[in-house]
Structures are given as C-alpha cells and as structure tokens.
From TrEMBL:
GO MF annotation, one: methyltransferase activity
Leader peptide range in chain numbering: none
Keyword Aminoacyl-tRNA synthetase: no
InterPro entries: SAM-dependent_MTases_sf
Pfam families, A to Z: Methyltransf_23 (PF13489)
Protein name: Methyltransferase
GO biological process, one term: methylation
Lineage: Bacteria, Pseudomonadati, Bacteroidota, Cytophagia, Cytophagales
Origin: domain of life: Bacteria
Annotated keywords: Methyltransferase, Transferase
Coiled coil: none
Amino acid sequence: MTDNNKQVTKYKRFEQTLEFMKESLPNGSKILDLGTPNDMSEYLINYGYKVDNAYGVDFDLNPEIIAKEGYDAVTMFEVLEHLINPMGILAQVKAPKLFASVPLSLWFAKAYRNKSDEWDQHFHEFEDWQFDWLVEKSGWKILNRAKWVSPVQKIGFRPILRKFTPRYYIIEAER
C-alpha cells in the first residue's frame, strides 16, 4: 500500500468517526482522548472540539489517570485492544459520554503483533458482542454503534475479504 493510499484510508476512518460522534456531541465539547496527541486528535480539534490527551503512563497499572472531571466525553480510539485489563480503564471514566472503537477479530487474520515494539501489539481483538459486554459490565449503557471496513490496496485473498468484512467497531455510551 502506498503512503497516499494509507493516508486516504486513515482519513476515511477519521471522517466516519467524526460523523458518528457529531450526531450527539456538539461542536465545542471538551474531550479527554486516551492516548498520545495524534492525527485523530488534531482532526477533532480542527472540527471544533476541545481535546486533551491522557498519556505517558501504563493504563493497565494506573487506570485512575483517566478519572478526570470536567469533560463532556472521553474517547478511546483503537486503544483498548492494547490493554491487558480494559475494564479497569473503562470503569474509571468520569465523563458522562464515552466514544470507543476497537479492531474486530477477523477469522482470516490473527491478532496484530509487532515484535519490535512491546506497546504496538494487540492483547485483545474483539467480536462486537464481546466489546458490548465489556463496556456494559464496566457500567455503561450503549446508545449507538457502527462498523466499517478497512480495505487495503493489495492483491490477494485477505485484501479482497477486507473490502466487505467490517474491521472496526465503534460505540457511543453513557452512564
């Protein structure tokens, strides 16, 4: 996949995420985004959201870092699959709204693993019902959900399957 194709795919996901969020989270809302400042954070800021990032600690060992008051929503985009205990962090959120997305478990692809970076690998890849259960068991009520595909510009059996098999799952929840 060329760098240009990766950018197009990335921004397509950003657009889908923004469309999902702006249905119920007004422009100008204050968001605590779980993770380092990134292109998605910048995308949301450019739309008009006020975004702070929570990062720099191991969320499995210090889930209380997310327990900050004064936010309209907390976002967790492709973060929870990296944690050993995602329930710990979900339970600590103080904001009234949660937007979270995860990669779905695909029957034709194993969980992502980067052997050269201990943080860049997936401990979990979820089926939609598993993620719903985790979120609800953490004290949230799911209001809305969506899935989307993530096609790649390669030749082969798995790239063909990625054109119509949903890869990402996003939920909106409230306490």
